[in-house]
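Help needed: design a sequence for this.
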């Protein structure tokens, strides 16, 4: 379990040790289940290839993100922006926080704390750590680098300011607002001087939006019989900026409430990931209202990361931004944690603690 994984690596260099890994058993149709994945007992040798720039890392925290569901279905080569997982043999991968065990790379040494993409496993050998980033702010919980100081935080920052170009005095609506990205979007919009409303799937999450994250208003979409009416109630003058996380019926209702020259930053559409045929949306609304709706990939804004990291670290230190995490303990808990995202069981950013330092 996690306690065993948390022990400091004491084995001799070159020794083979157990490496528990999460693999996809089969391609998924509909909602994923825990049985679609399996935790297997792999093995890893505590070594890096001689003369290589590889690093061997011990994974500490794994990030659970809804986009992983899109990789669990077989796609054509052009229909998915990241490769599908390969059932039966490939270890799932995603962003994580890790500690360097051995290194052949001149920029990293044993003991360094990094974040980047690794396997869902206890140890990962990274042949070329070009996309690994050093953790610069160890005064915060390391898990923050799977969320507010990592890809979800940068996604919120880039989507709100670079894509949607939110400005002081505008009305901003955020769906899935209590999640890893949404909670940061709302707080950044408030710091900008926007009026901010969010939707979430439980009264507990709605309360968090209003009391902890400082949203001006929020509603539980599961209790609303008419989403269009809910948006008109909370945003009677319309929506300037919509940060889109869910798609489907919510997007359709939002389009009817957008203001002229409104902007929509499309981050994700979690309500659609488990459907064989996506819900229809009245996109003609974009025409009459001159709405700009733009999808984006956070990787396009990787060059902004250093600036974002320092700005977000300052907000955290000053208490202007806070975050909520939902931490599952042990790599065995990873499949259930991922599946739980689609039932809304998580409150805040979902993280799996493989090992604690």
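Sure. Designed sequence:
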């Amino acid at each position: 379990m996690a306690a065993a994984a948390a022990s400091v690596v004491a084995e001799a260099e070159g020794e083979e040790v157990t490496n528990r890994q999460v693999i996809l058993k089969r391609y998924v149709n509909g909602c994923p289940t825990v049985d679609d994945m399996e935790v297997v007992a792999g093995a890893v040798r505590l070594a890096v290839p001689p003369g290589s720039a590889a690093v061997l890392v011990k994974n500490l925290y794994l990030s659970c993100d809804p986009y992983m569901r899109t990789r669990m279905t077989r796609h054509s080569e052009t229909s998915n922006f990241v490769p599908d997982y390969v059932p039966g043999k490939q270890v799932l991968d995603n962003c994580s926080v890790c500690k360097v065990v051995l290194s052949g790379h001149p920029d990293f040494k044993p003991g360094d704390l990094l974040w980047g993409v690794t396997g869902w496993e206890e140890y990962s050998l990274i042949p070329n750590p070009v996309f690994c980033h050093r953790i610069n702010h160890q005064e915060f919980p390391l898990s923050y680098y799977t969320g507010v100081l990592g890809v979800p935080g940068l996604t919120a920052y880039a989507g709100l300011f670079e894509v949607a170009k939110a400005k002081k005095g505008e009305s901003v609506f955020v769906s899935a607002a209590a999640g890893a990205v949404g909670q940061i979007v709302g707080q950044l919009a408030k710091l900008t001087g926007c009026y901010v409303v969010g939707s979430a799937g439980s009264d507990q999450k709605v309360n968090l939006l209003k009391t902890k994250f400082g949203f001006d208003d929020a509603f539980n979409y599961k209790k609303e019989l008419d989403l269009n009416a809910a948006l008109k109630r909370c945003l009677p003058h319309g929506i300037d900026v919509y940060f889109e996380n869910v798609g489907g019926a919510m997007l359709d209702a939002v389009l009817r409430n957008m203001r002229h020259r409104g902007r929509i930053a499309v981050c994700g559409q979690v309500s659609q990931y488990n459907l064989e045929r996506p819900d229809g949306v009245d996109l003609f609304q974009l025409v009459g209202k001159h709405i700009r709706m733009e999808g984006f990939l956070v990787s396009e804004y990787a060059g902004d990361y250093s600036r974002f990291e320092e700005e977000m670290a300052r907000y955290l230190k000053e208490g202007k931004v806070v975050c909520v995490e939902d931490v599952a303990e042990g790599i065995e808990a990873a499949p259930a944690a991922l599946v739980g995202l689609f039932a809304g069981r998580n409150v805040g950013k979902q993280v799996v603690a493989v090992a604690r330092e």
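The longest helix spans residues 151-163.
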